[in-house]
Design goal:
355 residues; alpha/beta; 13 strands
């Protein structure tokens, strides 16, 4: 691998997806680094007011990946950080079709632009451990070379596989560019707002009968540190990014001081119904398979290459819980809604298997 001392930090960096929490923070950190001269944020949407302050020193261009060819080449970008990857469809902005357009088509167009950018020497792509899928065929621990044992059911995992496939093609066409793919475990922190954080922040946590998935997390601050080092230093390759150690789902629920509500494994509609009833929101097949089968990855390559060790899964989870110590209000109406959702799901499963 290329040494982190092999090249000077890039002077001009393009970051996609800066209207969202992680992309905005990546761009902000790079803009604050005196070794970087210009940071250009590329996003079709305006950042919400809560993130706008982070982007004061970032040059914003309101455009999607289809406009990247002009931006990357004309501005002489030396590095591209692709953060515009979404993990769940937004029913208010096109649903699954828009999600795939952004994740898969957007990445394809961005890499096409990067391929034709003569000054480019670094590409960093946000990926996910969802690339490994989650099934009963899984090994105890995934390394970066492990292939999925089954085609993932979830749309996000399938998008990730497509994204990484495009990156492999880019590497073949531009071998002189240091391309870094970061497979992040589910991110967690005191303030992060994701399906997973809402899941554990609620007073009622739906689980699956007879299953106790092994889980790993990565703290958002550690994810940002790895992203920053990937841009400033040269670390080509694919890396798992997660906190060492494992938490069983039952351990996580107990540490959070929440109430576990077990449902049958086949009652996927029940689990989704409970999620909506207690305020978690939409839970997709990616999350359901993770809660059933779990996923654990090896991070020794990351630690050795980057010289950085993220805080452990347990430590990251405890910091998240400390920020949600009071949880959400557990009202009689919310418990009744959860109970009705469970019973309705069980009735549907029984009806589907009745002779």
């Amino acid at each position: 691998m290329v040494s982190s001392e092999a090249a000077a930090p890039p002077r001009i960096v393009v970051v996609t997806g800066v209207s969202r929490y992680l992309g905005a923070r990546v761009a902000s950190r790079l803009a604050a680094d005196p070794r970087v001269e210009r940071v250009i944020g590329l996003d079709p949407h305006d950042a919400p007011p809560a993130l706008a302050g982070l982007l004061e020193d970032v040059e914003l261009i309101q455009a999607d990946a289809r406009a990247a060819s002009g931006v990357v080449a004309d501005l002489g970008a030396e590095a591209v950080v692709h953060m515009a990857v979404t993990g769940a469809p937004d029913p208010h902005h096109g649903g699954r079709a828009a999600m795939k357009e952004q994740n898969v088509i957007g990445t394809m167009q961005l890499l096409a632009a990067a391929q034709g950018a003569p000054a480019l020497r670094k590409l960093v792509v946000r990926s996910s451990t969802a690339a490994y899928g989650a099934s009963f065929r899984d090994p105890a621990v995934f390394t970066e070379e492990t292939e999925p044992r089954a085609v993932p059911r979830g749309s996000f995992a399938r998008d990730i596989l497509d994204i990484e496939g495009y990156v492999r093609g880019f590497r073949r066409r531009r071998p002189e560019v240091a391309a870094t793919v970061l497979r992040f475990a589910p991110m967690i922190s005191e303030t992060a707002e994701t399906t997973l954080t809402r899941y554990f922040a609620q007073p009622v946590v739906p689980t699956v009968f007879g299953r106790d998935a092994r889980l790993q997390f990565v703290h958002v601050d550690d994810a940002l540190e790895v992203l920053h080092r990937s841009v400033i230093e040269d670390h080509p390759g694919t890396f798992n990014v997660a906190g060492a150690g494992v938490l069983a789902l039952s351990q996580a629920v107990r540490r959070a001081g929440r109430i576990s509500v077990a449902v049958p494994e086949g009652t996927l509609s029940s689990l989704s119904g409970v999620a909506r009833a207690v305020g978690i929101g939409q839970i997709g097949l990616d999350q359901i398979d993770l809660f059933v089968h779990g996923r654990v990855v090896d991070t020794s390559r990351l630690v050795k290459e980057f010289g950085f060790t993220p805080r452990t899964t347990a430590a990251a989870f405890d910091e998240f819980i400390a920020g949600h110590r009071n949880g959400s209000s557990l009202t009689a109406d919310r418990l009744t809604a959860a109970e009705n959702a469970i019973l309705d799901g069980i009735r549907r499963v029984r009806a589907s298997v009745a002779p």
